[in-house]
C-alpha cells in the first residue's frame, strides 16, 4: 500500500486561544479537489486523511458533515482508499483538552457517527500518534492543556488510548471488517554515558506505553508502578488488558530523523540523528507486538542541495525492504505529506507561517524532486507483493467494490469473527 497524507493536525497553543490548523495553513480547504487529483497523478492508492475535528464535531451529537461529504464522495469516485484520521493532535474547543475525562466516551460517539455516515470506509487511524500527543500536550507543555507533569502525561495518555479503543469498538459495529492502522511514533533513547543508562531504560520502556495499552499487552512492573503512581487506577489498567482488538490492527510505525535521542545522566534529551534507523527500531516494535507493519510517516526537508529528501526517501525504502527481507510482514509505505507543511520547524508551537519544504508538492502544487522520485518508486515496485505471499495480502475492499458480493461476504465473515471473540481476557504476554 503506497500512501501519502493530507495532514489534519489541529492543536491549540497560547492556553487554548490559538489553533494551528494545518489544512488551513496548507490551503487544502480551497484546493482539496486539486490535491486529490495530485494523489491520483502520483499513482498513490491510499491516503491518510480525515475531516477537521474542530469544524466537524460541534457538540454532543451535533456535526457539520458538509466538508466531509464533499471530500469523501470525491475520494470514493476516484477509488482512492482513505485511511481515516479522526483525531490528530487536537479536539474541539467545547471538549477542552486531553485532561477531560469525558473525551473518550464522547469521541467514541463521534467515531460511530462518522462510520454510520460513510459505511464504505474500511481503514482508520482513530487517534493519531497517542504517545506524541500526550508528550507534547502534557509533558512538554507545548500544545492543548500545556501541562508539564508525569501525572498530566499519564492522564492524557490513558484518555487518548481509551478514546482510540472505544472508537475501534464503535466502528466495528458498523464495519466489522474494519482495519485499524495505528500510526505511532517509533522512538529510541540512547544513553550517552554509563550514568545515563538508567534514565534511557525508563524512556525506552515508556515509548511503548501507548501501544501496550492499545493492544492489551501487560506492561512490566516498573511501568505498572509508574502508571499507578501517576493516576491510573487498577480498573483503568484492566480495561486496556481486557480489550481484545489487536486482531483488527496493522501497526503503523512513523519514523523521522528526529525519532532517536541522546539521554544525559540527568534525564535531559537531545536529538541524536539517525543511529539505528527505521529497520532496527521497527524490528523492536514488531518483536513486541507481532502485528503486520506499515511505515505510516516519514519526510525530510528538501535541503540546500535539493537532493536531501530524495536520498532520505530511498534510504527509508531500503529500510522497508530490509525489514521485509528479515521476515516482518510489512504491508505499506507512506511519504507524509502530499504538500509542504507549515510551522513544523517549531513543532507547531508558534504560528509563524513558515513553509517547511517536506511535501511531494510545494504549496503552489508544483511537484518537488522527492515527488518525482516517489512516483518512479511506486511505478517500479507496486506489483511486488510487500509480504512476498498471496496468503498475507491485506483484505482491502476498494471503494468501487464495496457493494459487490465478495465484499459483502467478507463483512459477514468478519461479523461472525467479532461475535465469536471471547469477552474474557486471555493470557497476556509477559512484559
Automatic annotation (TrEMBL):
Annotated spans, Disordered: 405-431
Top-level taxon of the source organism: Bacteria
GO biological process: carbohydrate metabolic process
Alphabetical UniProt keywords: Hydrolase
Gene Ontology molecular function: hydrolase activity, hydrolyzing O-glycosyl compounds
PANTHER family: ALPHA-L-IDURONIDASE (PTHR12631), BETA-XYLOSIDASE-LIKE PROTEIN-RELATED (PTHR12631:SF10)
Name of this chain's protein: Glycoside hydrolase family 1
Amino acid at each position: 500500500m503506497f500512501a501519502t497524507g493530507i495532514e489534519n493536525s489541529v492543536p491549540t497553543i497560547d492556553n487554548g486561544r490559538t489553533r494551528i490548523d494545518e489544512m488551513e495553513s496548507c490551503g487544502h480547504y480551497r484546493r482539496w479537489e486539486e490535491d486529490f487529483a495530485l494523489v491520483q497523478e502520483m499513482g498513490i492508492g491510499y491516503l491518510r486523511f480525515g475531516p477537521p475535528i474542530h469544524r466537524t464535531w460541534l457538540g454532543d451529537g451535533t456535526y457539520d458533515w458538509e466538508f466531509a461529504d464533499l471530500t469523501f464522495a470525491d475520494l470514493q469516485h476516484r477509488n482512492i482508499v482513505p485511511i481515516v484520521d479522526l483525531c490528530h493532535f487536537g479536539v474541539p474547543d467545547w471538549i477542552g483538552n486531553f485532561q477531560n475525562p469525558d473525551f473518550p466516551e464522547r469521541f467514541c460517539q463521534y467515531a460511530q457517527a462518522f462510520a454510520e455516515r460513510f459505511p464504505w470506509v474500511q481503514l482508520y487511524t482513530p487517534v493519531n500518534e497517542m504517545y506524541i500527543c500526550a508528550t507534547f500536550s502534557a509533558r512538554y507543555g507545548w500544545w492543548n492543556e500545556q501541562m508539564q507533569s508525569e501525572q498530566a502525561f499519564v492522564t492524557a495518555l490513558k484518555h487518548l488510548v481509551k478514546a482510540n479503543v472505544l472508537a475501534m469498538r464503535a466502528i466495528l459495529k458498523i464495519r466489522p471488517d474494519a482495519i485499524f492502522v495505528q500510526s505511532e511514533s517509533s522512538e529510541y533513547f540512547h544513553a550517552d554515558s554509563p550514568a545515563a543508562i538508567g534514565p534511557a531504560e525508563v524512556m525506552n520502556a515508556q515509548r511503548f506505553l501507548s501501544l501496550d495499552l492499545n493492544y492489551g499487552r501487560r506492561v512490566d512492573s516498573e511501568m505498572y508502578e509508574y502508571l499507578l503512581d501517576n493516576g491510573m487506577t487498577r480498573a483503568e489498567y484492566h480495561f486496556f488488558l481486557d480489550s481484545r482488538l489487536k486482531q483488527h490492527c496493522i501497526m503503523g510505525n512513523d519514523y523521522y530523523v528526529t525519532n532517536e535521542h541522546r539521554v544525559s545522566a540527568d534525564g535531559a534529551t537531545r536529538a541524536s540523528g539517525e543511529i539505528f534507523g527505521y529497520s532496527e527500531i521497527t524490528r523492536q516494535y514488531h518483536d513486541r507486538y507481532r502485528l503486520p507493519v506499515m511505515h505510516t510517516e516519514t519526510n525530510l526537508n528538501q535541503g540546500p542541495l535539493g537532493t536531501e529528501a530524495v536520498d532520505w526517501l530511498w534510504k527509508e525504502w531500503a529500510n522497508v525492504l530490509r525489514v521485509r527481507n528479515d521476515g516482518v510482514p510489512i504491508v505499506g509505505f507512506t511519504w507524509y505529506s502530499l504538500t509542504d507543511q507549515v510551522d513544523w520547524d517549531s513543532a507547531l508551537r508558534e504560528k509563524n507561517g513558515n513553509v517547511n519544504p517536506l511535501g511531494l508538492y510545494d504549496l503552489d502544487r508544483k511537484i518537488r524532486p522527492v515527488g518525482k522520485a516517489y512516483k518512479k518508486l511506486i511505478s517500479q515496485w507496486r506489483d511486488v507483493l510487500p509480504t512476498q505471499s498471496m496468503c498475507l495480502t491485506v483484505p482491502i475492499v476498494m471503494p468501487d467494490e464495496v457493494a459487490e458480493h465478495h465484499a459483502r461476504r467478507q463483512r459477514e465473515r468478519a461479523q461472525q469473527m467479532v461475535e465469536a471473540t471471547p469477552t474474557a481476557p486471555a493470557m497476556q504476554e509477559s512484559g
